[in-house]
Amino acid sequence: MPIKYLLREDQIPRHWYNILADLKSPPAPVLHPGTKKPVTPQDLAPLFPMSIIEQEMSAQREVPIPDEVRHALALWRPSPLYRAERFEKAIGTRSHVYYKYEGVSPPGSHKPNTAVAQAYYNAKEGVKRMATETGAGQWGSALAFAGALFGLKVTVYMVRISFEQKPYRRSMMHAWGAEVFPSPTDRTNAGRSILAKDPRSNGSLGIAISEAVEDAATHDDTKYSLGSVLNHVLLHQTVIGQEAQEQMKMAGEYPDVVIACHGGGSNFSGIALPFARDKINGKKVRLVASEPTSCPSLTKGVYTFDFGDTVGMTPLVKMHTLGHDFMPPGIHAGGLRYHGAAPLVSKLLDEGLIEAVAYPQRACFEAAVTFSRSEGIIPAPESSHAIKATVEEARKADAEGRTRVILFNLSGHGHFDLAAYDQYFAGKLEDFEYPREAVERSIANLPRVEL
User: Fold this and answer.
1) Rounded CA separation 161/204 (Å)
2) Can you tell me the distance from the alpha carbon of 146 to that of 57, in angstroms, rounded to the nearest whole number?
3) How buried is 360 (Cβ within 10 angstroms: 0-12 exposed, 13-18 middle, 19+ buried)?
4) In this structure, are residues 283 and 303 in contact, taking their beta carbons and an 8 Å threshold?
């Protein structure tokens, strides 16, 4: 039985898949933060190049991937699909476990799938610099890499607690020519307003987004770039699921359940959306998003309109949210720190097309260590949530006397996250369950929207 299933370079997908074309009803409109009316392309023009805006608003089922983007993707794509036979034995399951490994990209995660596309479109429209935020550093390093490929300057606002915990992610971004600042900073009005209230702020993804958006909006040669949440980002990630479908055919099996970790929704959507199309067309497949109990936007968040950032500069989107003023606990070791979920993922959950589960970080690290000692790859802390969900699905199947085919997305390696593993081995990692009362307090501060 093969260990891995490999596609040729000429089998890199030629189109991105847009699930908007197959939904029964369109998602709620994106609203202007000031007028509360649906945004227009002109509203978004200060932040994004027009080609990205067109993709964000498109309902076209298949969007062609430019040859220049496919050429860049070929540096690491198609990514391998593995049968995790050793892991199956380690957890004692009869189920068949497969994983799509996105850690083969130069930055070590799935994030460059959209970073190279965004850099290409920005460069093509004459943009000189891109500003962005990053939490654990995977997205910032991906955009720094993409900027280097297409000759763009990159400015990254990195959540302060991650900036301090993950110095080698910073080094990685610097190696590709990006400038990196710990957020909140004193470079922007948004950052200064946060520091005035809390000079020791650990930062949050929402704060970093506010700073990056302000930077882009106030510089004519700069556009904003986002690594998750928005429709065009999820669109670009569907190369993962499309490749996985072809590789599962090579393996002669079709998954009963597809699993990925979930923060903002990019890697979950990347693998799940092509299978969601199968589900819409009658296939029996479950799609499971696995998130941390310390940032449970899907499992505890409210499905309503909220800002994408902390200060309230971004458009309002309908999503599962913990409230835009959500602050993840400093003890949280991984990424997956965003207060909301992608509007598309939120709609799929609301309509029952996908499921969501949440796990504490120590149990996730335990699963990751079992995986690394059987399969050899040290997973990113984010990816460990998918591994934990896989273990639980396999145990359920065993208890029911069934053999399930389980596919999960291993979204990246953990080579730059070993400090978190050190904490785990030293018994210093703490579990934290974000309390329902805190969600209710945040929800009280949500913007009022009437449609």
Assistant:
1) 8
2) 23
3) middle
4) no
Structure-token pair, residue 390: 């896989």
Yes or no: say if 52 and 234 are a contact pair by the CB < 8 Å rule: no
Could you tell me how many helices (H) and strands (E) the chain has, helices first? 19, 15
Q: Please state, as a whole number, how many other Cβ atoms lie within 10 Å of the Cβ of residue 244.
A: 27
Architecture label for domain 67-108+238-442: 3-Layer(aba) Sandwich (3.40)
Q: Which two tokens stand for residue 399?
A: 């208890």
Q: What's the token pair of residue 76?
A: 């690491």
| pLDDT tens string 248-275 | 999 999 999 999 999 999 999 999 999 9
Question: What average pLDDT does the segment 314-338 reach?
Answer: 76
Six-digit token string for 356: 């969501």
Res. 31: pLDDT tops 80: yes
Q: Output the pTM of the full model.
A: 0.95
Residue 157 near residue 132 (C-beta atoms within 8 A): yes
pLDDT digits (tens, 9 = 90+) for 302-312: 999 998 877 77
**Right CATH for 20-61+110-231 from 3.40.50.1100, 2.40.160.50, 3.40.50.1000, 3.40.47.10:** 3.40.50.1100
Domain residue extents for the chain: 20-61+110-231, 67-108+238-442
DSSP letter assigned to residue 449: -
